[in-house]
Design brief:
Number of helices: 10
CATH class: Alpha Beta
CATH superfamily: Divalent-metal-dependent TIM barrel enzymes
Structural class: alpha/beta
Helix content: 40-55%
Shape: globular
Low-confidence stretches: none
Radius of gyration: 17 Å
Number of domains: 1
Mean pLDDT: 96
Order of helices and strands: EHHEHEHEHEHEHHEHEH
Largest sheet: 8 strands, parallel, barrel
CATH architecture: Alpha-Beta Barrel
Number of strands: 8
Amino acid sequence: MGRINQSFCLGCFKSKDVSDDDLFAAAAKIGYAAVEWWGRAQVPHDDLVALAKKHGLRVASCSGHASLPDGMNKPENHDRIEKEILESIKIAQRDDIPGLICFSGNRNEGQSDEEGLEECVKIFNRVKGAAEKANVNLNLELLNSKVNHPGYQCDHTAWGVELCKRVDSPNVKLLYDIYHMQIMEGDIIRTVQENIDYIGHFHTAGNPGRNDMDDTQEMNYVGICKGIAETGYKFYMGHEFSPKGDKIEALEAAFKLCDV
C-alpha cells in the first residue's frame, strides 16, 4: 500500500497574516507534495509556479476552462471551451501540472441528463487528443447539487464514469470530491475502489460544514484514505476545506490524518 500524494488548495489556506512564501515553506516542511488553485486568473500564475518550485512543490491542478455553471453541456459553449482547454493544456505541459479541472455545467431546461452527457462527450472528444499527447489529465469534477451547487449536472459518480467510458481516453477522468459525493451518495470507499481507474484527482473536506476533517463531522478519513491507498492510486489528494482555526495547524492535522 503506497502513500497518498497530498496537495492543498491555495484559496482555502491563504491568509493576510502569512505570506505565500511562508505558507509554501510550511507546507513543504509538513510533507506536502503539491499545491493547487482553481483558476489561472486567480493569481499571477508564473509567480506561483516559481514559488512552488522554490519549495520543492509541484502544482497539482488548476482550472482548464472558465465558468462552472455555464459549462460543457451547452453546445454553444464548445468552441470557447475547446480554445480554453487547449490553451490550458499547453500551460500544464509547460509547468508540469498533471491535471486540469473541467465542469459539466448546470442542467439546462429541456435537456435530459443523457443529452447533457452526450454534449460533454462531444467536447471532450475535441480535446482528448491534445491531452493525451501532452500527458495531461482532464478531470471532470463531481459536485453536489443538493447544498453547494444547485442544478449541477455531474453530481453522481455513475454519470461521470459513463462519460469517461464513452470518451474512452486514458487522460479524461474524474475529480472525485469526497465532501460532495458524501452529500450526494455516500458509500465512499466502495465507490472509489470500484471506479479508481476513472479518478484523476481527489478533494477533501469534512461534512457537514466543509471544514476540517475532525470529530465534528461524519466521515472517517483514515478509513477512506486507507481504501484509496490500497488501490495504488498515484495522483493527488487536495485538501479543499475552510479551516476553523489556525490555517497552518489545519494543514498539518489534515496531512497527518491522511498520511496512511
